[in-house]
């Protein structure tokens, strides 16, 4: 990985007091060039020092650099000096707030679902589809009024993120997939804080997470698909994997795990005969991301760690590997219905949320999308 010589970039965090926001604070407080400059949350928190506003749920203390920062309301005027704004906002409010920040020529990296389906907003899992940054100029140009710097870029739903990484590795090695079945066992931190009541989740599995199955089935196509000409108008569009239709069926469950989403995945390849389990293991282990190759400091060295043990990955043992920035896969074996099945584990608050946003912002710096006056 090449060394970076990037100057400091001031950053803001919206939703800084929430589950994802706290992970942003932890990661950014150790970042080599992003420097926390402004924090935002609801009017309940605004005006308080961060340490008073937050219900801190991390295993290390509130970083000294932010403890006394005063939390603001999520208004662009408080973030105007920020080269990058990270958003861990509740989706009930993220739409309007992120839009106001974009109009104010700010660059927003969002975890919320609101703009993931926007035809001009890239939905980027940084270990998979950094090429979708190519849609940023079109988003700026088609905005009314056109923008010089501002744009919104989102990362994916936390379960989508875990599964698209091995799927991308398999398509890169063996060509298009035809179908995919996914069953998730999702941690309770995925629902934010305080989230699901303890009496509903202890000693229990809840076989429903509102909207989650549709997100996995739709977002995966946008992420794994390419960018194509949108008719003869000179515009580009996400092709939604349209050249090789991919059928995906997801079933989502909430389980009494605090952090780390586990997913059981079966896939069918277009190519016949399909690869063997050993070929699949080798392809997964060999997969490297653009984020790592380009030198993003937060990129995991091993994009996918392939376990040989029969009983791994497990959330408690594997969620913090590489600070939760990579994805763990195990139990790669033949599927009697489709071709190959395996188990994926991804840390929902790290690569499933804050780490993805930070990696996307690092890619934006490397690709020249962060204006130089903010450094
Ligand atoms: N948790 C995950 O694993 C995960 C993974 C991927 C994506 N996401 C997405 O990331 C976002 C945040 O999730 P979370 O789990 O961190 O939620 P959370 O713990 O409920 O935190 C929500 C944050 O939004 C702020 N907020 C709420 N209402 C607001 C308002 N009216 N104006 C300004 N700020 C407001 C809260 O501030 P106060 O403290 O002041 O109320 C808090 O900082 C959601 O869109 C979620 O879908 C979450």
Short description:
The chain has 375 residues and is an alpha/beta fold. 29% of the residues lie in helices and 21% in strands.
What does this 3D model show about the protein?
- Pfam families: Semialdhyde_dh (PF01118), Semialdhyde_dhC (PF02774).
- The active site is at residues 158, 261.
- It is an enzyme of class 1 (oxidoreductase).
- This protein is α/β, with parallel strands linked by helices.
- The protein folds into 2 domains: 9-157 and 354-374, NAD(P)-binding Rossmann-like Domain (Rossmann fold); 158-347, 2-Layer Sandwich (Dihydrodipicolinate Reductase, domain 2), CATH 3.30.360.
- Helix content is 29%, strand content 21%.
- The protein has 12 helices and 14 strands.
- The strands form 3 sheets. A 6-stranded parallel beta sheet has the order 3-2-1-4-5-6, sandwiched between helices.
- β5 (107-110), α5 and β6 (151-154) form a beta-alpha-beta unit.
- The model has no long low-confidence stretch (mean pLDDT 96).
- The protein binds NADP nicotinamide-adenine-dinucleotide phosphate.
- The site of NADP nicotinamide-adenine-dinucleotide phosphate (NAP) has 30 residues, from α1, α4 and α12.
- NADP nicotinamide-adenine-dinucleotide phosphate binds at residues 15-21, 41-42, 44-45, 74, 88-91, 93-94, 111-113, 158, 189-190, 192-193, 348-349, 352-353.
């Amino acid at each position: 990985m090449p060394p970076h010589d990037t100057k400091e970039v001031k950053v803001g965090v919206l939703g800084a007091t929430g589950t994802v926001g706290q992970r942003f604070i932890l990661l950014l407080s150790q970042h080599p060039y992003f420097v926390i400059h402004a924090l935002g949350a609801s009017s309940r928190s605004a005006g308080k020092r961060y340490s008073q506003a937050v219900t801190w749920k991390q295993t290390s203390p509130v970083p000294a650099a932010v403890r006394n920062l005063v939390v603001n309301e999520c208004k662009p005027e408080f973030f105007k000096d920020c080269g990058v704004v990270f958003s861990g906002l509740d989706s009930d409010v993220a739409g309007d707030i992120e839009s106001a920040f974009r109009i104010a020529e700010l660059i927003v990296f969002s975890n919320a679902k609101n703009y993931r389906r926007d035809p001009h907003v890239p939905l980027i899992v940084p270990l998979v589809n950094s090429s979708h940054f190519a849609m940023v100029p079109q988003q700026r140009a088609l905005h009314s009024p056109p923008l010089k710097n501002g744009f919104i870029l989102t990362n994916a739903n936390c379960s989508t993120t875990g599964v698209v990484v091995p799927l991308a590795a398999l398509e890169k090695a063996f060509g298009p997939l035809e179908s995919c079945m996914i069953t998730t066992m999702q941690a309770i931190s995925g629902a934010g804080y305080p989230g699901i009541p303890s009496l509903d989740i202890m000693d229990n599995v809840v076989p429903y997470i509102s909207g989650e199955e549709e997100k996995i089935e739709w977002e995966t196509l946008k992420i794994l698909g390419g960018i194509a000409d949108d008719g003869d108008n000179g515009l580009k569009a996400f092709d939604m994997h349209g050249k090789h239709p991919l059928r995906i069926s997801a079933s989502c469950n909430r389980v009494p795990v605090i952090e780390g989403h586990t997913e059981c995945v079966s896939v069918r390849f277009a190519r016949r005969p399909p690869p063997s389990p050993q070929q699949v293991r080798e392809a997964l282990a060999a997969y490297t991301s653009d984020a790592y190759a380009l030198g993003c400091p937060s990129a995991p060295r091993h994009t996918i760690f392939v376990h040989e043990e029969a009983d791994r990955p497990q959330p408690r043992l594997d969620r913090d590997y590489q600070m939760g920035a990579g994805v763990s896969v195990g139990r790669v074996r033949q599927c009697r219905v489709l071709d190959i099945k395996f188990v994926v584990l991804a840390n929902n608050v790290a690569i499933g949320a804050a780490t993805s946003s930070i990696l996307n912002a690092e890619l934006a710096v490397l690709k020249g999308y962060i204006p130089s006056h903010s450094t």
